[in-house]
Design brief:
Chain lengths: 394, 174
């Protein structure tokens, strides 16, 4: 039996992003923005958009492939797919599913996309306005535990308690995102620097999360084009080869009423070894990391669970100096990410990981980025991660 | 064991005393208007909510292998038996984690922040956990590992279509 892997078989060859807006500020409807992102991604790749024959998204994206394909005049669709689960857990997973479909021969050119205009639909940061909380929600909502920040704060608190983590570790993640956003004109928080004092003085949303520990709410759309490594070589840009992808969830992580046996976790413990095994690289070789920030505490546990430092080393390891693009040991969220560029549900982390491989990021960590990594959706179920490289077999 | 994360918005002693008094006078920890608990459509948690009306704490347990299971499910995750019962457990536990919401995520919470949500581990039921509010001063220092006791909070005021009882917690010596 041949080795079962997608290593080096596909590449991301096109990036498309609308302008990123604050929630409610987008002039266009969400569906139109999704179309725009896909058109831009195809143009960036140098591929006729009508040649796209695969669609992959996540988090119950409202913009369904049949309508997109019809609107774009796409000749035929060979693959359409939705990654299960909510939050940003499927960002890397959607790209992985697109890659798997190309590798398996279901389609030749797949787009992984996300359209999200929170100003036009419900806000994630609000509790449901419903008279009754059914099922598992009955164990939490009547006690005022309703929003994503509240769902995850106690997991982070428990990790901090077990490992004696200081608030400054969370602050370092926020500072890194805001630092990088100041170099990125696309970032919603460009021109809005964040100091340690700003963070410390910001209001609590839910302890242990200050305002700046929480992602933004935004409007926009983003898309990436995935095709075979063979085809990728002849296109406009240097391909970002998909070296490995992994998705999944650990033992009984979805147990309701906060009963996951391992509680203070981002849910990557069984995923990370599979990811690195497929990639054939380890955490020490990662040049740049884009780590999904629903909340800074999730990034903290993602970094630990992907092997960049031990739980006991968090206080020492987590600093702006560690995470900055210019000389940091682990350049983190180099576009500003969900906190300070745009909450495009983590698809903007994937476009940034590709720019690092191409060498075109505003905060380019070095000329030749060999290993560019993304982790998607800490603390949700399932989660996913992705490793890109400038070489199909580095 | 001291808690290393005191609130940054530290209340003055006077304010804390006032807040404690105000909260002690409240019939319910959180104001009316939040979603009420409803059993699963298939009735999975029906017995649990009926138990709270009698001020009894019930947890699902497997008749086959005696595994405790929470939240409830149709089969036992350990031995896959569908022969499950609800067993009464001591209404006491330990604080496993906590959070203090300051941002009101629902209109009903507008005047009710901050408040405290605790995750309570039940040593008498295989360490399963339950979410509730920690009664008392919302500014109080919270220590993981503290012993807590359940307080059954009845919601059967006029206007509540289906009366229900929430399980809240208060710190006790131990």
């Amino acid at each position: 039996m041949t080795e079962r892997t997608i290593r080096g078989k596909t590449a991301i060859v096109g990036l498309g992003e609308t302008r990123y807006y604050k929630r409610g500020a987008a002039p266009d409807p969400e569906f139109k923005m999704a179309l725009e992102a896909i058109l831009l991604a195809a143009e960036d790749a140098g591929i006729d958009v009508r040649d796209i024959d695969g669609f992959a998204s996540y988090s119950n994206d409202r913009n369904d492939p049949p309508r997109l394909a019809t609107a774009l005049g796409i000749k035929h669709v060979g693959f359409s797919n939705m990654f299960w689960g909510g939050g940003g857990g499927g960002g890397s997973g959607a790209v992985a599913n697109a890659a798997a479909a190309v590798a398996a021969g279901y389609c030749d050119v797949a787009v992984a996309y996300r359209g999200l205009a929170q100003g036009q639909f419900g806000r994630f940061g609000q509790g449901a306005r419903i008279p009754q909380a059914p099922g598992a929600m009955a164990f939490t909502a009547p006690y005022g535990l309703m929003s994503p920040a509240q769902m995850f704060a106690m997991r982070v608190r428990r990790f901090m308690h077990d490992n004696h983590v200081d608030q400054e570790a969370l602050r370092a993640v926020a500072l890194a995102s805001y630092h990088h956003a100041q170099y990125n004109p696309r970032a919603v928080m460009h021109g809005r620097p964040l100091s340690e004092e700003d963070y410390d003085n910001s209001r609590w949303i839910v302890e242990p999360f200050h305002l700046f520990d929480c992602c933004q709410e935004n409007d926009g759309a983003a898309a990436v084009i995935v095709t075979s490594a063979e085809r990728a070589r002849d296109l406009k840009h240097k391909p970002a080869y998909i070296l490995a992808a992994a998705q999944g969830t650990d033992y009984r992580q979805a147990a309701s009423a906060h009963n996951a046996p391992d509680y203070g976790t981002s849910n990557f413990k069984t995923l990370a070894p599979r990811l690195y095994a497929m990639a054939g690289v380890g955490p020490e070789e990662v040049d740049a990391l884009q780590s999904y920030e629903n909340f800074t505490g999730g990034v903290m546990m993602s970094i630990v669970e992907h092997g960049f430092c031990k739980p006991s080393e968090v206080n020492e390891f987590f600093s702006l100096d560690t995470f900055r693009f210019d000389g940091g040991k682990l350049p983190l969220n180099t576009s500003g990410g969900n906190l300070a560029e745009c909450y495009m549900h983590g698809l903007e982390l994937i476009t940034e990981a590709v720019r690092q491989v191409r060498g075109t990021a505003p905060c380019q960590v070095k000329q030749e980025v060999n290993v560019s990594m993304v982790t998607s959706g800490p603390m949700v179920q399932p989660v996913s991660s992705l490793i890109l490289s400038r070489e199909p077999n580095p | 064991m001291s808690d290393p994360y005191p609130p940054s918005h530290a209340a003055t002693a006077a304010h804390a005393a006032e807040a404690a008094e105000e909260w002690a006078e409240r019939h319910h920890y959180l104001p009316a208007g939040l979603p009420q608990p409803a059993p699963y459509p298939e009735g999975l948690a029906k017995e649990f909510w009926e138990g709270t009306r009698r001020h009894e704490l019930l947890v699902q347990r497997c008749n086959g292998c005696q595994t405790w299971q929470w939240g409830p499910e149709f089969i036992c995750y350990n031995c896959h038996s569908s022969d499950l019962r609800y067993e009464r457990v001591a209404p006491e536990g330990r604080i496993f984690s906590w959070e203090r919401p300051w941002y009101p995520v629902h209109p009903a919470l507008q005047q009710a922040v901050p408040y405290i949500v605790v995750l309570v581990e039940l040593p008498g039921a295989g360490g399963v956990r339950m979410v509730g509010n920690l009664l008392g001063d919302p500014h109080q220092e919270i220590v993981i590992g503290s012993a807590v006791q359940a307080v059954f909070e009845d919601h059967d005021d006029a206007g509540t279509p289906t009366p229900y009882t929430l399980v809240q917690w208060r710190v006790v010596a131990g």
